[in-house]
Amino acid sequence: MTASEHHRAYWRSNLRLTTVLMAVWFVVSFVVAYFARELSFDFFGWPFSFWVAAQGALVVYVLIIGVYARTMNRLDQEHGVAEDE
Q1: Cβ(39)–Cβ(72) under 8 Å?
Q2: For the Sodium symporter small subunit domain, which residue ranges apply (predicted)?
């Protein structure tokens, strides 16, 4: 593989990861919130829809950041562009 082919493979993997994580973000932000009104049962004394909006989404956002960082570090090492510590 030439340097250009390595760069394209790295960028393609980066775009694929970003697309998947943005799709997860979209589902959590908009799809779950749209259907939250139909989730009308109490969860620890609060409506479940409130819990999903206030707590569940934040947990998913933090997980998205963690998955992206870990996967990109691994991808950087595979393609030889990792930063030295």
Answers
A1: no
A2: 7-81
